[in-house]
Amino acid sequence: SNSNYNYLSTVSSLLLNTALPTPTQTVSNPDQAATTYSFLSAPPAAAPTAPPLPSNLPRVILPQPPLDISSVSSSDTMINVLFNDSLNWQFVAGNADSPGQIFEYFPSVIATALDISVSEVLNYDLVVYEPTSYTGPADVALLGTIWQGYIPANQVSTLASLISNLKSSFYIDQPGSIPSTLAACVDPSLQLNAISGPSPGGSSGGTSSSGTNVRQDAIIGVVSSLGAIAILIVAYVGMKAYKRRRAVAHRRLSDNTDYVGVRPEGQEFDRDSVGGQRRRSFYYAEDSLRGYQSSRADEDGYDHHVTNTRERRAIQPGTISTPILRESTMNW
Fold it and tell me: Using CA atoms, how far apart are residues 139 and 137, in angstroms rounded to an integer?
């Protein structure tokens, strides 16, 4: 029992839409449950849609306090139960106590039918049901009321079977006047899974697993980004090397003026790194003593018009003295 609805304990009967004809029991069918009423509606032609509602009516009514989805077990699932015209939307939304009675007693109706604890049946909200015959605010009396809540997923098929059977414990085994009348107001034509709701938050283990998945996704994202950056760097370096090889391969020989072994322009060939002259041959000293400064081309050239024959002169014997050895090679 919800302490927020304790004030309803003074109400001994279910609040119903008294504007409708009072439902009467029918016994023409011996197989029909005694608590079944003749005002059960025909199966809805389509799932809920969203035509305009009267401005004074909400689309959703929440319990107090609202259900915390994160506290719902992952083994639970949402179900949808449609009420007939006795609890249509115009009446429920316009009566402050009617939603409280539904939230207070309907979980016990389901728990009694399934023989489970009432704590396993959770109120989620009440929503408006709009049949295909509803076209606008003028048809407000046609709007229905759907209870949405969570029960164990393995109990859904059992509950659907009980609701479809008018002689089942869902209708005839309810203790008290309000639960029995509330069960009789259920319209079995709507499938329990007709409208999907938010997924349950699950247990703490599920939360931990979800956090682990988030961390794994973050790590995968970071590694993927670093890998992409590394690939871009390698591609950039490879492209630069490729362009450099292409540039060297297509350079003309005439573009390269630094030939090995060629004398630089304006500089003697026989200069070292500091600019000093080097001896290029044994004859360099002899040429220097003779004052020979002409080019090798002049020395090696040949002209048959020019003769290099020198004039022979007679040498007087007395003009040549005897050689005198002044020093020996041994420094004596």
Answer: 5
Beta strands in 222-262 (DSSP E): none
Q: Are 278 and 272 in contact (CB under 8 A)?
A: yes
Integer Cα distance of 84 and 88 in angstroms? 6
**Using CB atoms within 10 A of its CB, is residue 97 exposed (0-12), middle (13-18) or buried (19+)?**
middle
Note if the bond before 65 is cis, omega within 30 degrees. yes
Stated length of the chain: 332
Q: Which tokens in the block code for residue 73?
A: 């077990």
Nearest 10 degrees: CA dihedral of 190, 195, 196, 200?
Answer: -70
Q: Quick count: other Cβ atoms within 10 Å of Cβ 314? A: 5
* DSSP code of residue 312: P
- CA separation, residue 7 to residues 14, 193, 296 (Å): 14, 32, 131
Cβ proximity of 179 and 109 under 8 Å: yes
Mean pLDDT split into 10-residue runs, the chain, 332 residues: 59 69 41 38 50 88 92 94 94 91 94 94 94 91 95 95 94 91 94 90 48 71 86 89 80 55 58 48 56 50 54 63 61 56
On the CB side of 46, CA atoms within 13 Å amount to 8
E strands, 49-90, are 60-61, 76-83
Q: Side chain identity at 69, as an amino acid letter?
A: I
pTM over 0.70: no
> Do the Cβ atoms of 283 and 299 come closer than 8 Å?
no
Distance CA 108, CA 119 (A): 9
Write out the E strands in the chain: 60-61, 76-83, 122-129, 144-152, 186-187
- Between the alpha carbon of residue 320 and those of residues 311, 316, 324, the distances in Å are 20, 8, 12
Rounded Cα distance, 278 and 285, in Å: 11
